[in-house]
């Protein structure tokens, strides 16, 4: 069965075609229109700009997707759309588009939770099927969360964002460092030339067994640190050391809490995704930690870690194949929990 996925929860317009057969999915085609260059002059996402871009991109991308894959809308079996969490106006336009398309060609529309899309994206490549239970780690611009995933729709939250999500903190810290939006990849680039042990930046709730995920303290610490060292901030080598050290604080926090949750919960599989998991240092640290613990690590490839429509179409396809009926909320929900 062929599924169209539509993702517009934030500042990326994504559409994808995914084919499902016997509970396995295959990507037929995927297109993504990044709005980064449009938002960059403002140092962050401007919701009104995002929604206008989505409105412009959606019909163009969908037409191109069908043209390039040589499929036609009448061959679709279902449409999947992100119904939350995210920016209200961005979610609304994607939902209006998907519903209109569903009505026009008489197809069911499946609402998918954006976090659920991230949660299962590590399983979209490779031969291994999804195996429950697993420990899910999602770290993005809006969320940091650890969940015990016991089956479809059976998600037990072990820890979630206490204040700033890790990606949000990185984006805000990048601004303090004079780096453009989005800050995560920029900090990673700068950090590659720096010493991660140069400065001992604080870690939120570092005590063993404390799963709270907090990154606003790090942001504040970096702000005061930079103010105290204003003169040195003109030295690129100093800034590289700052970037490497603060990245290390985020990586160690995420790794230690995740590995502790995995070991204490008796998990055998860790599935990690979300934009921040595109970070090479974090991927390597998790790989090393999982090897040591004998834990199987499934990690989404970088292109599927950041927002995309493949994960939305696939989640709908797999849920539908597992016998869950298509459901769509009456309205989008910007604060939709997992
Ligand atoms: O999952 P995502 O694309 O969107 C949300 O659902 O929020 O995540 C975006 C976040 C941004 O905060 C961005 O700075 C961060 O992921 N990010 C990274 C990297 N690539 C994206 N953070 C660290 N290192 C990266 N390479
Ligand atoms: Zn996301």
TrEMBL record:
InterPro entries: ATPase_NBD, Gcp-like_dom, KAE1/TsaD, TsaD. GO terms for molecular function: iron ion binding; tRNA N(6)-L-threonylcarbamoyladenine synthase activity. GO terms for cellular component: cytoplasm. Its EC number is 2.3.1.234. It is found in: Cytoplasm. Residues 27-313 form the Gcp-like domain. It comes from the Bacteria. It holds the Pfam family TsaD. Its cofactor is Fe(2+). Required for the formation of a threonylcarbamoyl group on adenosine at position 37 (t(6)A37) in tRNAs that read codons beginning with adenine. Is involved in the transfer of the threonylcarbamoyl moiety of threonylcarbamoyl-AMP (TC-AMP) to the N6 group of A37, together with TsaE and TsaB. TsaD likely plays a direct catalytic role in this reaction. This is tRNA N6-adenosine threonylcarbamoyltransferase. It comes from Methylacidimicrobium cyclopophantes.
